């Protein structure tokens, strides 16, 4: 391999198409797990505050929160991504029509876009010529719309990812609070939740290129506030009922 080949292929560098989309799905999965941790922890700790010795009530509430939350997130993600997919298809259909009926104008538009990116006008026209000769629709879809016409967003994959990630996150507080820790179950559950929030905050910040420490602290504070609020409400409600 010569120097030019080495320059084109850096070890460890990702060149695969869709890398940005994969990172977005991964980040969404981490956030789904985070939602599962916080929402389910809030429910089980709230119920434990009201009925600390009633494991059946805690388990029932926790499982209900897990199932409802997982289906709600999956359904919301399916609807959202389906709308995005429909929009992408409509834009591609419009682009196809323009290429069939306004080929000269579309060529000039593509060349102008490359010219705006910094290419000289003659080079921009040559690039437009070659790309449109190879795959005019793909060239315009990528440059104008940022869409791959052969790879639309998948609503079922988004829904499945959200369902699984929420469920995995929700299982952390649900399992821990049902373990035989006696009077320490709430404290140990809170500790497990904080560890989970530390992990999801760290991963989401890393994927997004943000400051990890700030993201982790913010994540833990919001989750802790949720647990404290629901525990106090549970205690007050439990005392009032009893």
Automatic annotation (TrEMBL):
Q: Which UniProt keywords apply?
A: Membrane, Transmembrane, Transmembrane helix
- Main subcellular localisation: membrane
Q: Where is the composition biased (Basic and acidic residues)?
A: 1-16
> What is the top-level taxon of the source organism?
Bacteria
Q: How does it sit in the membrane?
A: Multi-pass membrane protein
PANTHER family named among the record's database cross-references = FE(2+)/MN(2+) TRANSPORTER PCL1 (PTHR31851)
Tell me a Gene Ontology molecular-function term this record carries: manganese ion transmembrane transporter activity
Task: List all membrane-crossing ranges.
Answer: 156-180, 186-208, 220-241
- Signal sequence, renumbered to the chain: none
- Record's protein name: VIT family protein
Gene Ontology biological-process annotations: intracellular manganese ion homeostasis
Q: Where in the cell is it found?
A: Endomembrane system
Q: Where is this region: Disordered?
A: 1-21
Source organism phylogeny: Bacteria, Bacillati, Actinomycetota, Actinomycetes, Propionibacteriales
Native source species: Acidipropionibacterium jensenii
Q: Name one GO cellular component term.
A: endomembrane system
């Amino acid at each position: 391999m010569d120097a030019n080949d080495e320059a084109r292929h850096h070890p460890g560098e990702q060149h695969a198409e869709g890398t940005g989309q994969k990172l977005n799905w991964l980040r969404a999965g981490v956030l789904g797990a985070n939602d599962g941790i916080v929402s389910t922890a809030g429910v089980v700790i709230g119920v434990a505050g009201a009925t600390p010795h009633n494991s059946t009530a805690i388990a029932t509430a926790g499982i209900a929160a897990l199932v409802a939350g997982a289906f709600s997130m999956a359904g919301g993600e399916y609807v959202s991504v389906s709308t995005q997919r429909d929009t992408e298809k409509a834009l591609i259909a419009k682009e196809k029509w323009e290429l069939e009926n306004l080929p000269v104008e579309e060529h000039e538009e593509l060349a102008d876009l490359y010219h705006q990116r910094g290419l000289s006008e003659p080079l921009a026209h040559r690039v437009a010529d070659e790309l449109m000769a190879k795959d005019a629709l793909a060239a315009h879809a990528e440059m104008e719309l940022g869409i791959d016409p052969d790879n639309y967003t998948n609503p079922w994959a988004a829904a499945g990812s959200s369902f699984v990630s929420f469920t995995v996150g929700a299982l952390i507080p649900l399992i821990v609070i049902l373990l035989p820790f006696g009077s320490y179950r709430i404290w140990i559950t809170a500790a497990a939740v904080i560890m989970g929030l530390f992990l999801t905050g760290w991963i989401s910040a890393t994927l997004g290129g943000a400051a990890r420490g700030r993201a982790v602290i913010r994540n833990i504070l919001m989750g802790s506030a949720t647990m404290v609020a629901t525990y106090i409400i549970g205690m007050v409600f439990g005392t009032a009922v009893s």
